[in-house]
Specification:
The structure is a single chain. The protein is of the alpha/beta class and about 300 residues long. The chain contains seven helices and 19 strands. The strands form five sheets. Strands 1, 2, 5, 6, 7, 8 and 19 form a seven-stranded mixed β-sheet that branches. β14 and β15 form a beta hairpin. The longest helix is centred in the last third of the chain and has 21 residues. It is elongated and about 65 Å long. Bound molecules: NADP nicotinamide-adenine-dinucleotide phosphate. NADP nicotinamide-adenine-dinucleotide phosphate (NAP) binds next to α5. The site of NADP nicotinamide-adenine-dinucleotide phosphate has 18 residues, from α5.
Length: about 300
Amino acid sequence: MKINEDYKIVIIGAGTAGLSAAIYAQRAGQDIIILDGKGYGGQIGSTDRVENYPGIASVSGFDFATGLYEQAKSLGAKIKFSAVKSVEPTDTGFDVVTDRVIYKTAAVIIATGLEKRKLNLDKEEILTGKGVSYCATCDGAFYKGKNVAVVGGGNTALEDALFLSEYCTNVYLVHRRDEYRGEQTYIDEIANRDNIIQLKSYIPVEIEGTDRVEGFKVKNLKDDSVKTLDVSGVFAAVGQVPSNDIFKGLVELDSAGYVVAGEDCLTSTKGIFVAGDCRTKEVRQLVTAAADGAVAGIAAAKYVRNR
Ligand code: NAP
C-alpha cells in the first residue's frame, strides 16, 4: 500500500538542472520535492574538474554538486533518493509514483539528464564494476600501475585518457575515426603523453575475462586486423543518451528520446516543464543546465500560482 504526499512542484532529477530549478521554485515560495533514484549531482558529481562555469575558475565536480545540493536544502527543498516509476495525469494535476509513495502535485519539472551510452558488447554488463567502467574519475585510482583502455573520441574520452595516464602504466585510446571530436588542447596534451597509445580507426570487438576484465579485443577498420590489448580496465566514454522512456505518451519526445521543448522549458503538456540535458537543445553544458533550472523553476512557480 503506497502512501500519499502533497507538493506544489515535484522535480525529477537532482543534477544541476533539477537542483537549480529547486532553488528558484523554493525562493518563489513553492513547496517542492526533488526525487532522484541515483543520488544528487548527476553527471557533474562524477566530473573531475569544472573549469568553464562563469565566475568559478576551477572547482571539483563533486564540490560544485554538493554546493548546489546544500544550497537547495538550506532554502527548504526536500530531497528523496527514490526512483520515479511513472507520472500520471489526475483531475488536479499529476501523480508522481515511486515504489512506496505517490507524490500528488500541481506541476512537474523533468530534469533527468542523460545516462552513459553503452558499448553494446557481450560481457559488458556482467563485467561492469569488474573492470568495465563509465567513470574514470570515480574508478581511475583502482587501476594504478595497470594498463587500461578508453573508448571514444569526444571531450570525455580525451579527458579520461589524460586523467588515467596519471595513474596507469599505459592507456590505450580507442577511437572509431581518424579524427577526434574533442578539443584541440586535449589532443595536443595527449600527443605529449608517452603512456597514451592512440588507436585511431579502431572499434571495440570483445571484452575478455570471466570474473574480471583480462583483455580487450579491438579491430582496425582500415585493414580488418584484430588485436587484443592487455588491459585490466575498459573505460567507455562514447557519449550519453536520454532516459525518458517513462514520459512516453505524457509529453512529446523526439526520435532520439529527448523531451521536446524550447528555451522556455515548456513541454507539450500543461503543468509539465523540462530542464537541462534531457530536453531538445543545441548546447548541453553545465551553465545551460543551471540556466534551464532557473527558467523551469520560475515558470512552474508562476503556473502553480496562477492556476
Ligand atoms: P560525444 O562528444 O558525443 O563523443 C562521443 C564519442 O564516442 C565520439 O567520439 C563518438 O565517435 C564515439 N562513439 C559514439 N558511439 C560509439 C560507439 N558505439 N562505439 C565507439 N565509439 C562511439 O560525448 P562526450 O565526450 O561524452 O561529450 C558530451 C558533451 O559534453 C560534448 O558536448 C562535450 O563537448 C561535453 N564535454 C565537455 C567537456 C569540457 O568542456 N571540458 C568535458 C566532457 C564533455 P564519433 O566522433 O565518430 O562520433
